[in-house]
Structure formats: C-alpha cells, structure tokens
C-alpha cells in the first residue's frame, strides 16, 4: 500500500491519474447536485426546540392542517411544502431530553434552522439557551440560517421577542445569519413573516440569478 506524501512521493503514475480523475469526478458531481438544487429551488429546513415548544403545531398550522389533535413528536415528521417559488423540505424533530442526542442525525445538508421557543416557559430558558448554543457549534450546521420563533405569544405572561432574544443571548451570534420572530402557532399570527424571512435569507446564499 502506498502512502501519499505532501510532495507526491510514493505515488505511482497510475495512482496519480486515478486520484485526478476522482477529484474531477467529485467536483463534477457537486456541480451537478448544485445545479439540480438550483433548478428545483429546494431548501432543507430543520425545526428543533425543547419539547412542548410548539414545533409540530407551527408546521401543521403553516400547512393548513388541523391543530386540535397534536401529540408529542417521539421521532420526526417530514413535510414537503410549496411556498411561493420554493420547495421546502421541513424536518420536525422531537425535543424530549431523551431524543436530543439524536438531533445530530438530521444535520446533514441543512440550509436553515428554525429554533422554536415556548415564550411562556420561563423555567427552561437556560436549558433552551444551552441547547441552541451547542447546535450553533456543530460543523454540519455551519452557515445555516437561524430563525428563532418566540412562540405562544397568545398565552398570558409570555415573554416578548426582545426578552427571548436577551435570554438566549442572540446578539452574540456571529457565525450565522439570524432573526427572531414572535408568533402564535395556535392563531397563526406572524408565522408567515418568519417563514418568508428564512426563505429569503437562504435563497440569497444558495441560489444564484440565472
């Protein structure tokens, strides 16, 4: 077995040729995949948050589904939605503490991250902050657009978007484009504003003008 050195010593002419072909083919494949994604105007969005934050309710409400019979997500839900000119593949993953170690299984090829916060649950804001902080350090989420939904604004005592922003220390985030949007999954208020923002930001990064 030959071990490649930095100066190329140890490689035969055939192995160098094979390596060049492999690199060219790999680059060609990436170009093809990018063109396919560009043509389809497709985005992969991962929706996470602590349990009972309202992730599934948000997804169902946005899709025009009945929200009166929502059960805790014990695994994940996938919805493929058409919105404006874009195809959205949205992954809604359960937020129970026992499931959070599995979140990493869904990071690959994520264009946008929606982090849902229960604005009325003051007790778990520290936990919420730490989980989000850990996600933003993940290499496979590097560059992904971040939208924070300050959900459950219809409930009495819910913290404002500004208070959630400060509690999560969002202003310190320098590695991702981010925005926070107050909303109510139950009434649907401001959901569209948040979705439109994350789509616009993702599109500005991954799609080029023809």
TrEMBL record:
Keyword list, A-Z: GTP-binding, Lipoprotein, Magnesium, Metal-binding, Myristate, Nucleotide-binding
Keyword Isomerase applies: no
Binding site for GTP: 49-56, 95, 151-154
Residues the record lists as binding Mg(2+): 56, 73
Listed GO MF terms: GTP binding; GTPase activity; metal ion binding
InterPro entries, A to Z: Arl2, ARL2/3, P-loop_NTPase, Small_GTP-bd, Small_GTPase_ARF/SAR
Name assigned to this protein: ADP-ribosylation factor-like protein 2
